[in-house]
Design goal:
This protein is of the alpha/beta class and about 375 residues long. It has helices at about 10-15, 25-40, 50-55, 70-85, 100-105, 105-120, 145-155, 190-195, 205-220, 235-240, 255-270, 280-285, 330-335, 345-350, and strands at about 5-10, 45-50, 95-100, 125-130, 160-165, 170, 185, 185, 225-230, 250, 275, 295-300, 310-315, 320-325, 360-365.
């Protein structure tokens, strides 16, 4: 298995195959795969659909097409059922993260989600992510969790994304209509032709969400995340994955994950401010691979929010030595600069992070 951290998206057809409550029919083999990955030293994050289907029988609706408020009520009760169903398959604790696309677009919420996932994984907890359907409306569209899974893969800095569904990959034609259709095992470039294979009105699979799966793969592979689409209802698929085989369609990453992130930090994000470092902190960042702590900060310049990109400046010569995402806004940072991390809570009244710029969120630009 050529990955260290994987996001596994599980479709509602696997969580609630009868569309009327949770089932262990397919989840047992998925859970076994997750456990095997963990035993091999891999980190796993689940993105699980199915809360609406799980709560469908518990909310009276009297319609084959319930209203949005009714679906939200189904999701509210179904989420509890779905989480309980997942937890019974694992000996390690699971955690629940309910988020929306809006959470991932907001700088401060984005960094909070990232920190939460990081700490959960460090403590051996399985993060299980789902959309917060009780407050979302547009997000309830079929297949949207595919794109959410890609965004979770980005925020968690995964190097692999697996989309489990009831289909076993991308075909050049609809295999249900044409037995001569060929599965495409490896896709190195997501072209308009690839999208066209999933957008025809005669393609039953596409109508069920193949296009959103390709959109998710497009987001992920652009950022160095290899993406698989596999049939999660086939238990033998997971044996093949564990053996290093490709049982579905693999979308190859377009660049290495580390390179993708470094390029994003260096070239895409515009710095909103500057943090000046003393000699000790400068050397620790450049030569020691260290995160930036408040004790090493001598000066804060500019106005920025938590989650903004900042330049790290060597106070001794004025050189920009690194660039990274800051965990604090400029007001709070000015209060805790030069202080020990243990003092942050007493000074600010809260402490979202003991580091100012985490090493994972930093790119070194030059020697100090």
């Amino acid at each position: 298995m050529n990955f260290q951290r994987v996001v596994i998206k599980v479709g509602s057809a696997l969580v609630a195959p009868d569309k009327n409550g949770c089932s262990g029919k397919y989840l047992l083999s998925i859970a076994r795969f997750v456990t095997a990955c963990q035993q091999a030293g891999k980190e796993v994050i689940l993105v699980s659909s199915g809360s609406v289907a799980a709560g469908r029988s518990l909310i009276q609706h009297g319609s084959p097409n319930p209203s949005i408020p009714t679906k939200q009520a189904m999701a509210a009760v179904g989420q509890m059922k779905m989480m309980a169903n997942w937890q019974r398959f694992f000996d390690v604790p699971c955690s629940q993260l309910l988020i929306t696309h809006g959470d991932l677009k907001d700088r401060s919420r984005y960094i909070n989600i990232k920190n939460t996932i990081r700490i959960l994984l460090e403590n051996g907890v399985i993060p299980i992510v789902n959309e917060n359907d009780t407050v979302a409306t547009e997000e309830l569209k079929v297949g949207d969790n595919d794109n959410l899974a890609a965004l979770v893969a980005l925020v968690s800095e995964a190097d692999a994304l697996m989309i489990l569904s009831d289909v076993d990959g991308v075909y050049d034609q609809d295999p249900r209509a044409n037995p001569e259709a060929n599965k495409i095992s490896v896709i190195s470039d997501i072209t308009p032709e690839i999208y066209a294979m999933a957008s025809g009105t005669s393609n039953v699979i596409a109508t069920g969400g193949m296009q959103t799966k390709i959109q998710a793969a497009d987001k992920a592979t652009e950022n160095g995340i290899a993406t698989y689409i596999v049939d999660g209802s086939d238990a033998t698929v997971f044996d093949q994955l564990l053996q290093g085989s490709n049982p579905g369609t693999l979308f190859e990453a377009r660049q290495a994950p580390v390179k993708a992130k470094k390029n994003w930090l260096k070239h895409t994000l515009k710095s909103a401010g500057q943090i000046h470092l003393d000699d000790g902190a400068s050397k620790a960042v450049v030569n020691g691979g260290a995160s930036l702590l408040p004790s090493g900060i001598s000066q804060v310049a500019g106005e920025f929010s938590a989650g903004d990109s900042v330049d790290l400046i060597s106070a001794s010569n004025g050189n920009t030595i690194a660039k990274g995402i800051c965990q604090y806004n400029h007001h709070d940072l000015a209060k805790i600069k030069g202080k020990n991390s243990k003092q942050i809570d007493n000074i600010l009244g809260y402490c979202p992070s003991k580091v100012i710029v985490h090493r994972d969120d930093m790119v070194v630009l030059s020697a100090s």
